[in-house]
Specification:
- The protein is built from 8 helices and 8 strands.
- It folds into 2 domains: 1-33; 36-241, TIM Barrel, CATH 3.20.20.370.
- By secondary structure, the chain is an alpha/beta fold.
- Mean pLDDT is 92; it is low at 5-22.
- Helix 5 (115-133) packs parallel to helix 6 (149-157).
Length: 242
Amino acid sequence: MPESALTLACGLAACAAVAGTLSNAALRPGSQIFGRTLIAGRDPREAALTYDDGPNGNATPALLDLLAAHRARATFFMLGKYVRGQQELVRRVHAAGHLIGNHTETHPWLHTQPERIIREELRACNHALEDVLGAPVRYFRPPHGARRPAVLRIAAELGLTTVQWNAMGQDWLPINCERILANLDRGLARARRRGRGANLLLHDGWDRAPDADRAATVAATATLLTRFATEGTRTVTVDAWG
């Protein structure tokens, strides 16, 4: 191969490797390559139950009842498009002492969106929540965890701390309670080995249907809360970590 062709081939391979690294970082929840995100604290006895894609009139009230029975608090990252139709439920979540965060207006993959759309998605959700709560929103979780530097910058400009996770139930899939718990247990064990708290990603809603069936998630939550009470794990909201 001629030297010029070899140089070009090497350059293309290097570009491909960099692109792959950046693509992975955009979707890997623990990556900090694009900037700092909040994941968890340094106490392995702490766990944050977090729920995305609500509010959902079929699942969120059941979760609130469970959390109240265990005197536990959770974090709910809500979609603006659902907040407007479930204002009383949003107020109930807030009145119960849970933390409410921004999960965008419509749930797009933000890392592929122009800055105008990113800003509109975050602002619209903030407005929906703040109109109901009468208080500013401080925390934001990007749908799918997808971000790039512009996402973090725009979130910061709007006063939002970006939150990811380190334990994932994969409950957006049609799986049962036992599989959700098995998925979470892997993340919990990994976090504890590293001396970190656990930020558990679950879903009380679904961006494609406002009344999605989340019975398996509710059942998994019941098991987790009972287990945490037995083993001495404290449930916290993500604002306890930053």
